[in-house]
Amino acid sequence: MSDHEDHHFETGESGASATYPQQAGEIRKGSHLMIKGRPCKCIEVSTSKTGKHGHAKAHIVAIDIFTGKKMEDLCPTSHNLDVPFVKKTEYQVLTADADTGEVSLLQENGDTKDDLNLPVYVKIGEPTEEDKKVTEDLLKALDDGKDVIAIVQLACGEEKI
Q1: Which helix (H) or strand (E) holds 117?
Q2: DSSP the chain
Q3: How far is residue 105's CA from residue 115's CA, in Å, rounded to a whole number?
Q4: pLDDT digits (tens, 9 = 90+) for 35-50
């Protein structure tokens, strides 16, 4: 080997993951988990007894926290599942445009956050009934001149009001 080898390293993320592992048997109703690469909130868990092959199974029914889509997973209770870090942040809503869907939020440091849209403007699938209600309530409260606080949920690099 020569003394003058060029080493090229790709720069990447800090290594902090968007998820952490948790045993399937530890998942409870109301907890978050990843199913098919999507962050979900568990609405039902049932476990079956150990069978002839020795593993108890966890049957998990969950709702995607961004699309509202129902998802299911079946896996041994001893296996690890990915659990997303879900962060909720409150912002004061400055403006919301019903036509374009753009929302301007006030951050704690006084800066504005302008990269989010109203919940009815979805990237995947159709907006849920809850999305429509949140959008309607938010716009009505702004029209009435009230101070509106929106809770923004963040998981796996995705955000939603």
Answers
A1: strand 112-117
A2: --TT----------S--SEEEEEGGG--TT-EEEETTEEEEEEEEEEPPP-TTS--EEEEEEEETTT--EEEEEEETTSEEEEE--EEEEEEEEEE-TTT-EEEEE-TTS-EEEEEE-TTS-SSS---HHHHHHHHHHHHHHHTT--EEEEEEEETTEEE-
A3: 9
A4: 888 888 999 988 888 7
Which of 152, 129, 33 lies closest to 82 in space, CA to CA? 33
Instruction: Kindly report the pTM of this predicted structure.
Output: 0.71
Look up residue 79 and give its two tokens: 């296996």
- pLDDT 10s digits, 66-87: 888 899 888 888 888 888 888 8
pLDDT tens digits for 105-137?
A: 888 888 888 888 888 777 666 777 888 888 888
In Å, how far are 16, 17, 42 from 9, measured between CA atoms? 18, 20, 39
3 state SS of 47: strand
Q: What is the pLDDT of residue 14?
A: 42
Task: Using CA atoms of 69, 93, 143, 65 in order, give the dihedral in degrees to the nearest 10.
Answer: 10
